[in-house]
Amino acid sequence: MAAKIILHIDFDSFFASVEQQYRPEVRNKPIGVTAANSRTCIIASSREAKRLGIKTGTRSYEALKICPGLVLVPADFNKYFDVSKKFLDICKDYSPFTELFSIDEVFMDVTLTAGLFGGTSSLIKTMKERIKDEIGEYITASFGISHNKLLAKLASGLNKPNARLQTPKRSDGGQGFFEIKQEDIVKIYQMAKLTDICGIGERIRRRLADIGINTLIQLRNASLELLVKEFGNVEGHFLKSVGLGIDESRVIPYTQPQEVKSVGRSYCLPKNEPSKKIVLQNLYELCEEVGIKLRRLGKKGKTIGLGLNGSSYIKARKTFRDYADSGSQIYNLIFPLIEEDFKNQKYVRQIHIWVSGLEDKQRLTLPLFDFEEKKDKIVSTIDKINNKFGDHTIRSGFLLYADKLTTAPNGYLADRYERSKLAESEPAHYK
Ligand SMILES: [Mg+2]
How far, in Å, are 146, 258, 292, 355 from residue 417 at the CA level? Predict the structure, then answer.
């Protein structure tokens, strides 16, 4: 069988470019996108800012020291989400096998369709023109091609405008894509770093260094036994295939209905928060958001997990007898399990709450008691109002003085809810 043709497309400095596209006055300027609720940290920087060394995670005051003229812009995920959607609309014209990998990255399997558009490079050229015309000239993307997802993603990463490593010769003669062929793997592995591979982060890099593996070539030559012994079966096999440049995973069309297995929300507080009240308000708000997501999906869940990370790490996970889909139910079920530990926690920085063990609401028995039904009605009325006027228009009295959060998609489309929302808005014939 002929080799597959997989594309990986990754927008360059996505959040910042979108801001620059929509606000011409900040084009060609170093800008830093910050979280909507806190300006302490840069979550994305523009090409111009990156060149000065301002990157994701740089503290704002440090960034301003490097560049006093840096423009700080609060993130607007709804805007980024719209651009992402427009982009998917373009992609699907070139292959039904388009997988949304994160808010600004897709994989496409064009094995069967590239021929219809005059081959891969002309297909890419057309897509680039459409991005320019339909999304904006300020938003550019890097294209990687290979015969599998692993190498296609590596290729686009090596082809970034600010890539640490300049690809030896852009194989496209300047059209803005980079291809890794089977016979190039060794040559590419000699130049690239372990952490250029998706799935090898700092933690794995350090553990590999502990067993004397510091380069991709060393990984390529490492024995499966050693890797499995060190990393366990799953991760060991993954690392061995990375070494060999093998990846058999398929491109999963984003239009394929995805089974949502869990729904959750994580939130990083702007500072180490000592106030119990503020932590609880935020926790409650996140429970409400998880409830909203569940109800939009028409699901209820009975396994609830909670993590509070701060001066200590407190967590709880329990499967309950009853299914829950409202914020107050979720909160009231899980919080008592950690209440004692929470009293002793000095501060909290990060809150994570999730619900799994999901079941379609219709399949669950009807509420036994009238008052249950009434509660369900109140909740669905609140949802109707919130759907119309924006999330959290009606909020629990407990939250009156808390900062308002929004159920905005985060940058990583972390749970499948956002993905399913994108798929839903597709024309019917694409489902
Ligand atoms: Mg990107």
Answer: 30, 9, 11, 13
Note down the domain range covering 215. Answer: 193-254
Residues 376 and 400 in one domain: yes
Q: Alpha-carbon distance 293 to 241, whole Å?
A: 37
Pick from 180, 207, 240: which residue ends a domain? 180
What pLDDT, on a 0 to 100 scale, did the predictor assign at position 404? 44
**Distance from the CA of 70 to the center of ligand 1, in angstroms?**
21
Structure tokens, 209: 């260094």
Q: Which stretch of 54-58, 252-256, 286-290 has the lowest confidence by average pLDDT? A: 252-256
What is the rounded distance in angstroms from the CA atom of residue 305 to the CA atom of residue 287?
Answer: 11
Calculate how far, in angstroms, residue 205's C-alpha sits from the geometric centre of ligand 1. 22
Distance between Cα 104 and ligand 1 center (Å): 5
Give 16 Cα–ligand 1 centroid separation in angstroms: 10
103, 102, 9, 13: which is closest to 50 by C-alpha? Answer: 13
- Residues 111-165 have pLDDT tens digits of 999 999 999 999 999 999 999 999 999 998 999 999 999 999 999 998 877 665 5
- 141 CA distance to ligand 1 middle (Å): 8
Sign, CA dihedral 403-407-409-415, equals: positive
Residues 350 and 417 placed together within one structural domain of the fold? yes
